[in-house]
Amino acid sequence: MDDIDPNLEATLRDALRRRRELTVSGFTDRAMVAIQRDTRRRKVIRWVSISAPLAGCAALLALFLGNLSDGLNPNEADIARLISAHDKVIVSTPHLEDADALVAFAFSESTVAASHLDTTDSLEELMDLVLSES
Amino acid sequence: MDVPESDPDADDRRLMLLVAAGDGDALRMIVERHHGRLLGFLTSQLGAQAVAEELALEVFVRLHRAAPRWRPEAKLSTFLFHIAHNLMLNEHRRRARKPTSPMELAPEQGDDTHASNRAVADIQEAFLQAVEALPEEQRTAILLLVQQDLSYEEIGKVMNVSVPSVKTWVHRARLQLRKAMGDEFRTFS
Fold first, then answer.
1. Which among A8, A32, A38 has the least Cβ separation from residue B177?
2. What domain range is B17 assigned to?
3. pLDDT digits (tens, 9 = 90+) for B82-124
């Protein structure tokens, strides 16, 4: 099929071979960090996707079947506070170590908050903390 | 880890099994073994080392994700080039949607002080620019064939096309290059 010009082919090969390999120092370390970050992110997404629907039910039960005013336990009160302060999205999950406790994540334009952890770290860090606790 | 040097493909298969089992050392070894060629290929494709490095990082992230499902039906290097090719197509689509300023190649290092060396370097540089100007399929096919030593069958797997398609693109690439390089090449040879 090809009418190969040997001179052209040899020169092309020499030119392209100059860039056959490009070893970059530190690349492997960067790749390992990127892979670890991806693994952590996927773990968090998986965890949230499994727990969120159940947790939503648990949070609703805790908030609406219980006494909504004076009878709230500290966690429920925290969640109620988060609901009022962050109107974007709320994901609440039962704390695995303590059936009565709830961990709630609330999102607004610029902040992420958690009732159980009382921190404004990134969601990923919060989820890491929760995962390490559970 | 004691990995024999005799058969690189067998070593890759063994390493991938370890990666699938969660072995971080094996993963690191795979990155060490393959990142040079991947970066060479992606830099030749994209013309910018920084972008090539970002895509190469993503290639290894995706390899790690795929490790539990990976089956050694093709060489690991072919699989890596396949991931890289798909990411590169996404990158080209992204650039087409959101054009950016042209990226420049990092200057080549080398001792080109001697006149004849400089002439060779010039002609090679002209070749590289002509390759960069090829249509995407032709460029990928000729780079994988001539630069990375893949067979037509392997290139077909990387690009997800038939072998005749690969041969057609390689043929057209050679014609294009001969046309583009005509004058300079006659001077050179």
1. A8
2. 1-101
3. 999 999 998 888 877 776 554 444 444 444 456 666 777 777 8
State the Cα–Cα distance between residues A58 and A98, nearest whole angstrom. Answer: 13
pLDDT tens-digit readout, A19-71: 899 989 999 999 999 999 988 877 766 655 555 555 665 555 555 554 444 44
Please indicate, yes or no, if residue A12 is contained in any of the structural domains. Answer: no
Residue B148 within any structural domain of the chain: yes
If you ran DSSP here, which 8-state letter would residue A61 be given? I
From CA A19, how far away is CA A15, in angstroms rounded? 8
The answer to whether position B107 is within a domain reads: no
Q: What is the pLDDT at residue B25?
A: 96
- Classify residue A9: in a domain, yes or no: no
Domain boundary among B68, B101, B134: B101
| Overall number of domains in chain B | 2
Residues B96 and B125 reside in one and the same domain: no
Instruction: Tell if the CB–CB gap between B185 and A11 is shorter than 8 Å.
Output: yes
Verify that B7 and B95 share a domain, yes or no: yes
Percent of chain A scored above 70 by pLDDT?
29
Q: How far does the CA of residue A126 sit from the closest CA of chain B (Å)? A: 23
Minimum-distance CB partner of B146 among A7, A12, A28:
A12
What one-character-per-residue DSSP string does B36-87 give? Answer: HHHHHHHHHHHS-HHHHHHHHHHHHHHHHHHGGG--TTS-HHHHHHHHHHHH
